[in-house]
Amino acid sequence: MAPLIAPHVPNPLTDPVVSPAAAAVTAFHRQLPHYAATPLRSLPALAAEIGVGQLYLKDESDRFGLPSFKILGASWAVHCALARAIGLPQSVSLAKLADAVRAWNADTESIAKGEKKELRILGTTEGNWGRAVARMAQYVGQVPCRLYVPTFMLPATQEILRLEGAEVHVLQGKNYDDCVAYVQAEAEREGSILILDVGFDGYEDVPQWVVEGYETMLVETDEQVLEATGGHVASHVVVPVGVGSIAQAVTQHYKGKSPNLYKKISKVITGSTRTIGAGGATTTNAPTTSHAEALWDGKHGIKPEQQTVVMAVEADTAACLRASLAVGRRVTVATADTIMCGLNCGTLSKTAWPILQRGIDYSVAVSDRQAHAAVQHLLHGSSNPRNSINKMKTTRRTTNSDNLGGDSMADDAGCSGGVAAGPCGAATLAGLRQVCSDARDVMKLDGDSIVVLFCTEGPRPYEVPFV
């Protein structure tokens, strides 16, 4: 499908915004089973090919055992929503909240008398979001969870949602935006707790909690980049956009005025630092203070003229951010099927749009062909699979296999290839390639650039586009 407007939109309105506090969210995530920071992959071969100094990929293909970053936002949102519903503070521990939720729903007599409502979660999803919500519903007292899904969702994906404990209803002939409207009405009718990552009039708290939940990923990324580069921060980051929640989190984080970043830089540069190189090798760098001093103005954190550039990537069949930036207001666009399922959203979250309008530096849209090519480039470490340094062995968990998730197939941190990603995750590489082709000078992408791609999902089944 041909783009309606130019495939890229620079944003002249960028301005610093304030990031939310991350300490409480990170502490909460550490209570979840199997918490561990996801890896930051170094991609030196692709960096050289694209023409940037250093290229890193934040690999969210295995987060708490799920193939996507979305459990970070879903878990915090479910926690906060349930705590509020039964009158507990957000600071309540996961274990205490789960006990309280079980006790609440076990009081069937009061529920039958209408003295209180059974705690139930409703939502809609195109795959990974619903899986994360359903998983969290099980963690927090086995709360009943019902998901409404678009007609194009693969039966295999529906079954995976059911295996997470969710009740799944397919809305025939409906797209994602239709499902949002439907589940909103259902939640209001029956008094259930609506858990979505998209904001609209009268529904803003939960989407904001979702955004706060993603801060854990960004804190990890900061620390990993500082360690890998010997005290430098990312000059450019690339994030995918669906309804805009993860892009909102990334924009707030990198455009915010945060003294915490300086503290992290100071911690790294006070002694020798370990840098992750090709093949997982490490080198030791002497201490330096020049970069920290250049960034820090003693009051506000990173100087505005040196702030990280934030670039957004959408599917060209659902480029609602690009269209909104072009006209200066939030608009809805018609969507079409895409292998980038998580980006197949025609309307930005109401809570995300003001942040994205002020903070996104550049918006680009990519096709299914570009996304699929990027999946292959990441898997082989080059645009030419024959140049792969560390080709992956053939397994069932290939990109278009029958597996929605599973363990990451990537090599150890530092490899130049072998990262298994889904189309939404690989879209950031496709977007970076297009920006380098169309606007390298405008975005100041050169041999000194330190670029981070947010790869938001692991390999999953999809129909390979005609190439």
UniProtKB/TrEMBL annotation:
Cross-referenced InterPro entries: TrpB-like_PALP (IPR001926), TrpB-like_PALP_sf (IPR036052)
Leader sequence residues: none
Pfam families linked: PALP (PF00291)
Domain Tryptophan synthase beta chain-like PALP: 33-268, 303-379
Name of this chain's protein: Acetylornithine deacetylase
Protein species of origin: Ophiostoma piceae (strain UAMH 11346)
